[in-house]
Write a structure and sequence with these properties.
Number of helices: 16
Shape: globular
Strand content: 15-25%
Structural class: alpha/beta
CATH class of the largest domain: Alpha Beta
Number of domains: 2
Oligomer: single chain
Strand order of the largest sheet: 6-7-8-3-9-10
Largest sheet: 6 strands, mixed
Number of strands: 20
Helix content: 25-40%
Length: about 500
């Protein structure tokens, strides 16, 4: 089915990143997991299979890649659409429509399939993936898990023999991961060849047939399912992988504790010196009808608001884990708190100073979930220094080294892996020196070692007096660094409690 014989590949503009001496053969109908530390080459292997290398990502390629006997480097990308389907780490990056129905059928329309066949495939995919509740919706209204399902549906409608998934669970809550598992099981039952690049391994351990472990652009180890599942947590951590037992443990032990309202003990009253107060945090994505004077949002008519929090006290100098299901309003909360949503009525009080509107921007800095939206320069070093009031190369070098990016100072951020880009954005947040640092899923796409490093950095920042709010679905991160839990449900405060 898939044969890769690559002596060497390096991205244009990056001599070190790439692949070396890769020999990989994947059988028809096999489900293969690619794992390894961030930047090890997992995503690059997927790009070789789907043709994005060399057609989109340029570089020096010495080798041969075939899928079903087709030479991938010499084939046209549009000819590969019905052979290899890809679900990217961020499904928004592959959307071309604005509504769910249009997105499901876009690929089939684009390659000129007969209209009757398109409708037939759409109906089959909707039934197989249980998508009827999502039909007729705007893509902008969907949660992360729902977007992922629509991306899978668009790929399924093309009926390719090979399915590629790049970090598919990185931004999903546990319920959405269960839905993703169902999709993968369905593809597996239909005999699809599936290759998954992933850091969160726990949900895949009973789905995969083989595991390929990569390091520094090379295949270092290989296991069958039984061999991989026999590895202990210590052995996985020694390889830089996330233990498969940890998330299952938290689902079982804390599923009815941290992640629900059972046994909740409210935070003790905070002294005036130790709190940051948020008031009138009202926001809606729906256009507001007003004549001459804009209507002020308030608690009296907040039923239809996307976010409605009349008052909230946040402990200063602590790490607060912001949790909730996909679509609960976590990202909206962060965007409003850092001043990115200009229509939010929020007033923030800290050190007896109350600010609102654009002045909030000076108090907060946010690392976005999709870091591609906030990478602007042509090198990692320049990206970090861009956030500084006064450029300091020594401080930038220290931050870069702490986040495991030493050696990439002169590399273009867009040439990095998803996990490395995330760390560049985190480095920029640290360099900004804001009072409140906001992180939207900072450990998505990160391996075990770098996730631990991020947790240590957040803890250290809190000890230095900064207030950290981190939106996450990662129980490992919560256990390592969070002092409090702030839970949202449908844009409302569900509870706030100490860990």
């Amino acid at each position: 089915m898939i044969n890769i014989e690559v002596q060497n590949f390096s991205y244009k503009g990056s001599a070190s990143a790439g692949l070396h001496d890769i020999s990989l053969h994947i059988k028809d109908g096999e489900t293969v997991l690619l794992c390894g530390a961030s930047g090890c080459g997992k995503t690059t292997v997927l790009r070789l299979i789907n043709g994005l290398i060399p057609h989109y990502y340029r570089g020096e390629l010495n080798g041969r890649i075939t899928v079903n006997g087709i030479d991938i480097p010499s084939a046209e990308l549009y000819d590969l659409a019905s052979i290899v389907g890809t679900v990217f780490q961020n499904p928004r990056s592959q959307f071309f429509s604005v509504d769910t129905d249009g997105e499901i059928t876009f690929g089939t329309e684009n390659i000129g399939i007969d209209p009757d066949e398109i409708l037939k495939r759409k109906s089959e995919v909707v039934n197989e993936l249980e998508l009827k509740p999502l039909l007729g919706k705007s893509l902008f209204e969907l949660s992360g898990g729902e977007k992922q399902k629509i991306a899978c549906a668009g790929v399924s409608a093309l009926m390719p023999d090979v399915m590629l998934l790049d970090e598919p669970s990185s931004n999903l809550d546990w319920k959405a991961i269960e839905e993703l598992k169902k999709v993968i099981k369905h593809w597996k039952a239909k005999g699809k060849t599936i290759i998954i690049s992933e850091h969160r391994l726990w949900y895949l351990k009973n789905l995969i047939d083989r595991v390929i472990y990569m390091k520094d652009g090379r295949i270092e180890k290989e296991w069958n399912k039984a061999g991989f599942n026999s590895l202990t947590s210590d052995e996985l951590c020694a390889l830089g992988l996330r233990p498969t037992e940890i998330e299952e443990k938290y689902i079982e032990e804390f599923g009815r504790g941290i992640f629900s309202t059972e046994n909740i003990h409210p935070c003790s009253t905070l002294s005036s010196e130790s709190r940051i107060t948020l008031k009138d945090m009202f926001f809606t994505y729906k256009p507001q009808k007003y004549f001459i004077k804009k209507k002020k949002l308030n608690a009296a008519d907040s039923a239809d608001y996307t976010l409605a929090i009349p008052e909230l006290e946040i402990p200063r100098g602590k790490v607060i884990g912001l949790i909730g299901k996909n679509g609960a309003g976590k990202s909206t909360f962060l965007r409003c708190l850092c001043g990115l949503e200009k229509d939010c009525t929020l007033r923030l009080t800290s050190d007896e100073e109350t600010v609102s509107g654009r002045k909030i921007l000076k108090k907060c800095y946010m690392v976005m979930q999709d870091v591609n939206h906030q990478l602007f320069t042509d090198s990692v070093e320049a990206e970090v220094m861009l956030s500084m009031d006064n450029e300091d190369k020594d401080q930038a070098a220290k931050i870069i080294a702490e986040l495991g990016l030493a050696g990439y100072e002169n590399t273009h951020p867009m040439a990095l892996s998803g996990g490395q880009k995330q760390r560049v954005a985190i480095a920029s947040a640290l360099a900004a020196n804001a009072e409140i640092l906001l992180f939207d899923e900072p450990t998505s796409g990160l391996d075990h070692a770098h996730m631990t490093s991020v947790a240590d950095l957040l803890t250290e920042l809190a000890k230095k007096g900064r207030t950290i709010i981190v939106s996450t679905h990662d129980p490992e991160l919560i256990s390592l660094c969070c002092d409090h839990i702030l839970c949202l449900e449908k844009g409302r405060l569900k509870y706030m409690r100490k860990c």
